[in-house]
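Researcher: Next entry in the queue.
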Amino acid sequence: MANGISAWWAAHKPTRRRLIQVYAALLYNAHAKGFLKGDIYTGPLKNVCVPGLHCYSCPGAIGACPLGALQNALASSGTRAPLYLLGILLLFGLMLGRTICGWLCPLGLLQELLHKLPTPKVQKSRVTRTLSWLKYIILGVFVVAVPLAYAAQRFPVPAFCKYICPAGTLEGAIGLLSNPANADKFSMLNILFTRKFIIMVAIFAACVFVYRAFCRFLCPLGAIYGLFARLSLLGVKVEANQCTHCGRCVAHCRMDIRHVGDHECIHCASCVEVCPTNAISLKCGSVMLLGSQAGKPARKTAQRIRTAAAWLLALALLAGVAWYVNRDADVSAPPAAETTPIAEDDAPVGCEGGMRCPAFTVPLYGAEGGSFTFDGAGGRPTVLNFWATWCTPCVNELPYFETLYEKYGDQIDLIAIHSDLVTDDVDEFLAREGFSLPFALDETGDVIASLGGSTMLPMTVVIDSAGKIVYNKVGSVTFELLDSLVEGTLGGR
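Model: Structure for this entry, 493 residues:
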């Protein structure tokens, strides 16, 4: 019995790479409370991009997806340049390259686990190598061209996230809707979700038969990191003076590489074990991380000590991040920097705290019609909530604005503005829910763009009686925060 268990463990024990993949997935999803409550984390860490593909709207997500953030930045490039996102991608690319795909991407882990299912497998060939170029076309069209085209029309559309990304469907939509707290939101699902669900199922089904099908053929983030194949600090390196060009590494690799370390290589280091001359190693600069070892006990002991120390530090980081994002933060009052307007009467028009809110007019929903106009001159405090029917966090927080309207409706202007290209189900949603607060439509996306927003929803803006912005944030809010913000503006009149 013991021998059988030992043999099974020897055959199935997780590799170092697998352990790091699992660790990365846990770190990316450290917001465990989100899975329990069915909401998303909206704290300060959400302004930071994680290296791998991971949906912003996943209940466990602690950071933003660099691909989604890049699309939103390009889609709103009429108001700001995406220099921060380009810098982040440049940093990730130069430091890690496609090592991110092989070691740090949760979707990569899922693809590899699906491929382990016992089915006939499609081997790499000239066809798969040709298909591997498809992700670069997707990068150019859905990540760059379409968002920029709509940005020129002043309407932001992150096309890859909206129409293709399986991570968004699995982690964002299904991840949120699978929670019983959001069961009543199934009625909001429309044809767009149905299409994305079919695409997701097709992609994951392909991964069962084709190794990392999404990564190899469709992932634009992998395409971006592939551009840094020759430049990344961390990656698989070949010692030219030791290589005999036997071809075992390329034949063994399941990715569509032409040679070790090219733009299709994910630096999984599986080729290290099959190299007969020990010419291949995983290095960070000149430091060898995986490769041939001298085998001396002292060196092995030192290596074990360094490995144990690294894992202790990594686990401490995971524990610290998990505590930080799951703690009960004090939201009884907003930060002073966000709630204190500047004193100058000649404050510039803009979207930041202390600036004068731009004037706008939006048409109202309802049979009575009409419009809502903010003239920028102030008079009464104003609360703007930008939302969409497909956005589960948006729908979850609408009752907070309804309660706020019931409490302060005679003292403030409050309006919920639908900001999305797909609006066919809005009338049905409003008729079903029966809210009393006014709803309007941002027909062109100009209003949310003028306030520095894009397709990242929900977004809340609070304006004081002088017409100056005191709060402008993307992400979910609590009623306590809204109440304190309104109380602050009323107290300052």
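Model: The two ends are 79 Å apart (CA to CA).
Researcher: Noted, moving on.
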